Input
Amino acid sequence: MLEQVRALSTFNLWVFKAVFESGNANLVATELGVSAPTISRSLSQLRLTFQDELFVRRHQGLEATARAKALYPLVCNCTDAMTDLVSSGLATAQQSQDLVLAVNTTMLVPLALRIRQQPYFYPQGDIQLVQWRPGSAERLAKGEIDLGIAVERPDRIDLELTFLGAVARPSLVAAEDHPLWHGFPQLDLNELARFNFTYYRSPGFNDRVDPFEMFCQRKGVTLPKVVCVDDREEWIANLLSLNAFAFAPRQMIPMLSNIPGLRAAALPEQQVRRLFASIPPPQHYLVQRTRAYRRYPPGLADRLVKLVQEFVVPQALPE
Output
C-alpha cells in the first residue's frame, strides 16, 4: 500500500478533502475547475489505494466511511503543509505566477466577489483585479496585464477578443424618496427627462455620450442637469445629494441595495429598447494575448468566461 500512497498526486488529496467537506462531487468539480469524470477517476484511485469505499452515496450526498473519517485529519495535514509551502517557502515562485486581470469598472467588485467564492479558481497564485482604463490594451500586449474584461474592442493584431455578451437588463437607481418612484413602473423615459441625471463613465461605452443623453437629444428634450463622473463614490453621492437618478447594470444592484437611502428597480423592457435604440448596450469582451504568450492554464479563461456570463446576456456578435 505504501507504494500506492506514494503514487497519489496532490490533486487526489485536494479532491479527498473537498469531497469530505462538501459531500458533493459535482460541486467539487466546479470548485476545482475540472470535469465530473475527472473527480470520479480521482475517487476511484483513492478507493483503490486505501482499499475502502471512502464515500457512500446517501440522499444527502456522499457520506464519509469510518476509514475516510480516520484519514481526513492526516490528509488535512498534507494539504495544509502544501498551502504553507506555497505561501512561505516558494514566495518567489508564487510571485511569478500571480496574475493581473483588468476589468470594466461596473464589473470589478461583483467579479471579485464571485472569484472569492471559488477558492480553487486559480490555485497557482493570486489574481489582482484592476480597473480597465485607456491604455490597458497596450499594457496587456506588453505583458503587464494578463487578461482583460472590457467593453471596448482594442484594435490590435497582437490581442485576441472573445465576445461574451451584452449587459443584462439595466435597473433604475435613485434615492428611495425620489419623486420618480411615484409613477413607477409606468414611468417612461420621457418623464424621466424631467429629473437630474448622473452617469458613471465607462471607457468604450459612454465615454463620449450616454445613451440617455442621446435619447433626449433625439427627442429634443433638455435635461435639467447632467453629471458625468469617473469615481463610483462620487456617482453614488450624486444620487443622494443632487436628487439625481441613474441606470445601473444588474451586477451592481446587490451592492447599491445595501446603501441606505437608495432604491433600485429593473427598467421595463419596453423602456430598455428605447434607451438603447441609438447606442447599443455595453458589449463585453474577453481580451487575451496570443496563445504563445499566456502565463496561465487554458482552463482559467474558460472559468472566467462562465463567471462573467452570469452578468451578461448572450446575443449576436455586434458589427
Q: What stands out?
A: The chain has three domains: 2-89, 93-167+282-313, 171-275. Residues 14 and 123 are 11 Å apart (CA to CA). Confidence is low (pLDDT under 50) at residues 89-95.
